[in-house]
Amino acid sequence: EYQDVEDRRFHAQPIGCPSCGPSMKVLFSDGSELGFGHGFDTPAAQVAWVLADGLIVALLGVGGFQLLADASSEAAVRRLRQLKERDAKPFAVMVPDMAAAERLCRLSEEEKRLLASPAAPIVLARGRKGADLAPSVCMFSRFVGIMLPSSPLHALLMDVWGKPLVVTSGNLSGEPLCTSVEEGLEKLGRVADVFFVHDRPVVRPVDDSVVRVTDGKAMMVRRARGYAPRPVWRTSAAAPDVLALGAGLKNTICWLKRGVAVMSQHLGDLSSAASLNAFERTVEALGRTLDAVPQVIAVDAHPDGPALALGRRLARKWNAAVVPVQHHQAHVLACAVENETPFPALGIAWDGTGFGMDGTVWGGEFFVLEEEGEPRRVARLRPFLLPGGDEAVRDPSRCACSVARQMMPWRTEGLDKRLERGMPVRKREVLEAMMARNIHCPATSSMGRLFDAVAFWCGFDGEAECEGHAAMMLESWAAEASGEKMRGEAYEWVMHEEEGLLELDWRPLMKSVDEDLLKGVSRSCIARKFHESLANLAFDVAERFCLDRLVLGGGCFQNAFLLEGLEGMAQSRKCQLALPQRVPCNDGGISLGQVAAVVRQWKG
Q1: In order of start, what are the domains of the chain with their CATH numbers?
Q2: Is the peptide bond before 229 cis (omega within 30 degrees of 0)?
Q3: Please, are residues 121 and 208 in contact by the beta-carbon 8 Å criterion?
Q4: Residues 44-77: pLDDT tens digits?
Q5: What 3-state DSSP class applies to 300?
Q6: H, E, C per residue of 364-422
Q7: CA 184, CA 202: separation in Å to the nearest integer?
Q8: Residues 526-565 pLDDT 10s
């Protein structure tokens, strides 16, 4: 195999010849080579010298370019954020060894095992106070995304550098990773000062995987290098061969061939022409690897979803059927099949937004999962309006204004005072007029948007600078209250039947928040009581439908504080809790859920 130039092993030899094997060099952004000097006689030493001077380096890794900066230099990290147009999302940090990781984070045994595993993912671990990291590395997060060297090139650099290093994806905002030297110089030339490259071609873009540990269990946040494309589920070999195209955000694809489901690496958001092209190339490449031709193509049920056009085109090419799958049904099915959950069970889908079958924006849904048939929606959060649509996703004060509008039967001085402090009068008048006339104000039952509203009441001001920003702040405030004496019990919900569904009314909860604001209760205490009320709600709904198995899906379950509360309560309520682990609970797991939905239809 190693002698045959037509064999793939000829091109993947694990032994590199010192004379003609892989070579490294350091380039300026114009493509000229950085000469040796100043006592630095290796490329790694050159790069360490550049980093020490506060400059930014683009490193060509295993799956594409990464951008590096000194993690202890606030100026370097801020400059990287500015040039990359990176929002407030925290950066990952690479350290040379486990001892250095423990100086930055409080690591459990499972977190240490994951860090040292062959997959070498980024592990989200609780940071230590006083760690030598620039404030702009982790921003508002109480977690540090920590990783060890994941390739020999990283190890060579860290042997010389020897301290924390910011490592982030080498791409422009909204685009896939740059994978060739030429592409890197063209697109990253205005971001990076120098380029640390090699002459081994990168076949396909692959980002770093991200994992967190909750209650001793490893949970995938982003499934990529080291984990994909391993099989994630097995069903009957008689099932149809399926290609699932996933969601528009945090996209992955999933092929089911002869009953074996194989997911791609994380592909990111399908928000640009370049990302759509990379998405299509991945569909073709993984299909070639598996020698698969689909009989069914599953797509998100959103009529304007970015994958729908490709799905129709591929369906014509392969004479396959196109099957739309509702977003939140896919969320809970992905978790159910991964955990091989016995049915019946209660599926809980809590996330930001997803197209609902009634034309509204869903995101706080409960489904009964049975042996046959599609998940049956049985409960939802009380809907409220999103003034401005996507603008409300970026501006939590809009969600708060909408929630306050539904509180009219009650006297809400605390909520009103907070709105007066956090929103200009003219802006509120405009939003009130939009909602009164129903102008660009879609209705939503989204738990993620309710998180945003409560975060505003607790003191979150301005626009969300990254996805989930307000919710992550609320989680951090709730965690701060762990040692604080609680004032009162968790907030109460009210349940009643509405349009054939169990409607979960958050207005009594918000009335209690109003009272706590007037009493001067701390934001951390309010945040904690809100999280505890959500844990109670999940099990109260399960009890209402006489179900003792809960299946969780959706981005809200990336919240470690919420999950810990649910895990603790499951024992006292004598319920079984199925958590997404090998597959992300966010939209990165949607493609597996789409495959599972098609298989259920086939069985039916």
Answers
A1: 19-214 (3.90.870.40), 239-325 (3.30.420.360), 381-586 (3.30.420.40)
A2: yes
A3: yes
A4: 999 999 999 999 999 999 999 999 999 999 999 9
A5: strand
A6: EEEEEECCCCCCEEEEEECCEECCCCHHHHHCHHHHHHHHHHCCCCCCCHHHHHHHHHH
A7: 12
A8: 999 999 999 999 999 999 999 999 999 999 999 999 999 9
**Could you read off the pLDDT of 285-340 as tens digits, one per residue?**
999 999 999 999 999 999 888 888 899 999 999 999 999 999 999 999 999 999 99
Amino acid at site 434: M
Position 532, amino acid? E
Q: How far apart are CA 601 and CA 372, in angstroms?
A: 8
Task: Say how far apart CA 59 and CA 181 lie, in whole Å.
Answer: 10
369 φ, ψ to 5°? -100, 125
Beta partners for 497? 502
Are 396 and 459 contacting, i.e. CB atoms less than 8 angstroms apart? no
- Of 593, 591, 600, 507, the closest CA to residue 283 belongs to 591
Length of the chain, in residues? 604
Whether 196 contacts 204, CB under 8 Å: no
The secondary structure of 215-268 as a DSSP string is TTEEEEEE--TTTTTSEEEE--TTSPPEEE---SSSB--EEEETTEEEE----B
Residue 325 tokens read as 């799958």
> Could you give the CA distance from residue 234 to residue 191 in angstroms, rounded to a whole number?
44
495: helix, strand or coil: strand
Structural contact between residues 415 and 514, judged by C-beta atoms closer than 8 angstroms: yes
Buried b (16+ CB within 10 A) or exposed e, 117-130: eebbbbbbbebeee
Sign, Cα dihedral of 101, 103, 105, 106: positive
Residue 404 class from Cβ within 10 Å (0-12 exposed, 13-18 middle, 19+ buried)? buried
Question: What is the chain's alpha carbon radius of gyration, rounded to the nearest angstrom?
Answer: 25
The residue to which tokens 């799905």 are assigned: 311
DSSP 587: G
CA 453 to each of CA 389, 422, 470, 492, 510: distance values in angstroms, whole numbers, following the listed order: 15, 12, 9, 17, 10
- 81: helix, strand or coil: helix
The SS3 of residue 524 is helix
Confidence of residue 366 (pLDDT cuts 50, 70, 90): very high
95 close to 107: Cβ distance less than 8 angstroms? no
Pairing of strands 321-325, 345-355: unpaired
